[in-house]
């Protein structure tokens, strides 16, 4: 069953470029993972401080492996210092 993750981040205006830089590293490493179908960072057109990670995984097991990967565990905690509020994460299954 395909899993989709939507992680919406409200980034401090002065930290947007640094946040994007960290996320590009996360995206690059995540795309190499087995079970990763899609993984990308998207910026809202009307509010450049809203940056959302859109991910698609083959199954829950692939997502679990990603959440426990070295690159995720190293980079994800660093992102919080760039945020105005906590990341809003929603996980969906394809019907």
TrEMBL record:
<dbReference type="InterPro" id="IPR007138">
    <property type="entry name" value="ABM_dom"/>
</dbReference>
<protein>
    <submittedName>
        <fullName>Quinol monooxygenase</fullName>
        <ecNumber>1.-.-.-</ecNumber>
    </submittedName>
</protein>
<feature type="domain" description="ABM">
    <location>
        <begin position="3"/>
        <end position="92"/>
    </location>
</feature>
<dbReference type="InterPro" id="IPR050744">
    <property type="entry name" value="AI-2_Isomerase_LsrG"/>
</dbReference>
<dbReference type="GO" id="GO:0004497">
    <property type="term" value="F:monooxygenase activity"/>
</dbReference>
<dbReference type="InterPro" id="IPR011008">
    <property type="entry name" value="Dimeric_a/b-barrel"/>
</dbReference>
<keyword id="KW-0560">Oxidoreductase</keyword>
<dbReference type="Pfam" id="PF03992">
    <property type="entry name" value="ABM"/>
</dbReference>
<keyword id="KW-0503">Monooxygenase</keyword>
């Amino acid at each position: 069953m395909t899993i989709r993750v939507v992680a919406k981040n409200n980034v401090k205006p002065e930290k947007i470029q640094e946040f994007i830089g960290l996320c590009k590293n996360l995206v690059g490493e995540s795309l190499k993972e087995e079970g990763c179908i899609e993984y990308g960072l998207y910026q809202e057109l009307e509010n450049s401080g809203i940056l959302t990670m859109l991910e698609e995984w083959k199954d829950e097991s692939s997502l679990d492996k990603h959440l426990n990967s070295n690159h995720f565990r190293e980079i994800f905690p660093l992102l919080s210092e760039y945020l105005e509020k906590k990341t809003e994460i929603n996980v969906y299954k394809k019907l």
